[in-house]
Amino acid sequence: MEDSIKLTTIRKRNNYLPYILLADETEDIIKEYINEGEMFSIEYNGRIVGVCLFIFPSLLSVELKNFAIDSDYQGKGLGKLVVKKAFKLYKDKGLHDMVVGTANSSIANLAFYQKAGFRIDDIYKDFFARYPEPIYEDGIQALDMIRFRKKLT
């Protein structure tokens, strides 16, 4: 299955907005970061099933800023394979760690990142309060960002 996943650099990022919106529901917020860093389409058996966007908050660190897989392909282990490929990609580029943030309300994401080897690193209180519309998941309002870190070395 690992060989059936491919990450391909995206040049025209706005064409992938429907995928990006799967992970971040606010287009105005997306516009603040869509042109930063490196963005890849996630291809599975030759079909585009998602995107991932990485930015570089420091010289030795990479942040997984946006990561979305079409709901038809979730729960099949593709996300785990994408993260594993990203770990290798950025370790090979000499980066030391990867960070990612998700909402306190994103129960599935909180579990996913920990299973992938990330550890809780920080909590940004009221991070999602700046969003124009409240976000609810599983009956929980997204208020705080839970920040995770994984050493790549």
Automatic annotation (TrEMBL):
Q: What Pfam families has UniProt attached to this entry?
A: Acetyltransf_1
Q: Which CDD domains match?
A: NAT_SF
Q: Which PROSITE patterns match?
A: GNAT
Under SUPFAM superfamilies, the record lists: Acyl-CoA N-acyltransferases (Nat)
Give the source's domain of life in one word: Bacteria
- The N-acetyltransferase domain covers 1-150
**Keywords of this entry:** Acyltransferase, Transferase
Q: Which InterPro entries match?
A: Acyl_CoA_acyltransferase, GNAT_dom, YpeA/RimI_acetyltransf
Instruction: Write down what this protein is called.
Output: GNAT family N-acetyltransferase
